[in-house]
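Ops channel
N.P.: pipeline sanity check, posting one input/output pair.
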């Protein structure tokens, strides 16, 4: 049990969690341009779960700035992935990758 807690608090895990949180704050407004808030939150979770760590790191670097074309393109690319499409479909939401 103590080992599990120690692993959960590892510096690498903390860094990944911070990256995911920062990326979420960038992804949500992009997705929110097309969906209501509750649905945007759900789709953002799908994007976070299907993005690679380098993509999340790139998105996280855009914290505090308005999403540019590169940011929107990364989010759109992740939305087109089969795993993301399936995740969105499981939510009962229409396809939004187009």
């Amino acid at each position: 049990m103590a080992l599990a807690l120690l692993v959960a608090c590892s510096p690498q895990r903390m860094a990944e969690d911070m990256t995911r949180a920062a990326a979420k704050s960038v992804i949500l407004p992009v997705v929110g341009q097309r969906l209501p808030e509750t649905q945007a939150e759900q789709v953002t979770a799908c994007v976070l779960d299907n993005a690679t760590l380098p993509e999340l790191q790139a998105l996280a670097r855009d914290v505090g700035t308005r999403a540019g074309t590169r940011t929107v393109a990364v989010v759109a690319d992740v939305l087109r992935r089969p795993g993301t499409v399936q995740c969105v479909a499981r939510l009962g939401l229409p396809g939004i990758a187009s």
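N.P.: looks fine end to end. The two ends are 45 Å apart (CA to CA).
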